[in-house]
Task: structure prediction
Amino acid sequence: MSLLYDLHCHSTASDGSLTPTELVSLASTNNVDVLALTDHDVTHGLHEAWQQAKAQGIQFIPGIEISVSWRHQTIHIVGLGIDPDNLELQQGLESTIIYRQQRAEKIAERLALAGIEGALEGARKFAGGQILSRTHFGHFLIDQGYAKDMKKVFKKYLVRNKPGYVPGHWASLEDALNWIKQAGGLAVLAHPARYAISNGRLKEFIAEFKELGGVAIEVVSGSHSQDEVLRMAELTKYFGMSASSGSDYHGPTNSYREPGQLHEMPGQCQPVWETQSWTEMLEQL
Result:
């Protein structure tokens, strides 16, 4: 019987709505065998999740999700099997956390110009960790009655050409992959079908990603349709890369699927957990 993997989830350490303990418990309920916590730009939820995973009999993979800027496009990179105490990783994440605070202040300023006051303080009330994200502003705007759900609040307020939009200026792809590598992790391109770029441009990115040390593409994602799963599977074949699977779970009101409730991995893919790199990574944990 094959194991059930979910290698992309979030907790209250970043912009999820479940604590690390609650997240692991839900994963256990959903029969997940191998779970990665990959919060945005922070690692302080990993120890709690690790302890709960041991108690629940789940194999735990410490992870991270890092935002990068590539040709004016924000793209997310998941790092699997990282050492949370790695100095180079933490120094890189510190610069990203500082930028997130600066961006949050700008988002609040722009929302105030649109007549929405108190957004920064309101977002902070929904943030349980070190970072402020657009999701926290989304919770504030929903709470204040500006939209009924996260999808609508993003579309109306927080994306390009809307009142609360602030363009991201994140780490370079090379820097982010170097942080993950120095921390002993494997770099995975997160939810590639989500990005508003052409297939040709996506291929250009993946080629650069692989050249800089990226090892896998997240073929199965909570936000991918079955057709998108098959299209991403073809990209792994085209580039000779392995495939990952993750729900990108953020919580009951802001997620596509629950942990472990994912499409099957297409048969033509080589799962990242069946690679030599994965075996070597596990030996370091």
Q: What stands out?
A: The chain has a mean pLDDT of 95. The CA atoms of residues 1 and 33 lie 11 Å apart. Residues 101-158 form a domain with the DNA polymerase; domain 1 fold (CATH 1.10.150.650). The chain has two domains: 5-93+172-284, 101-158.
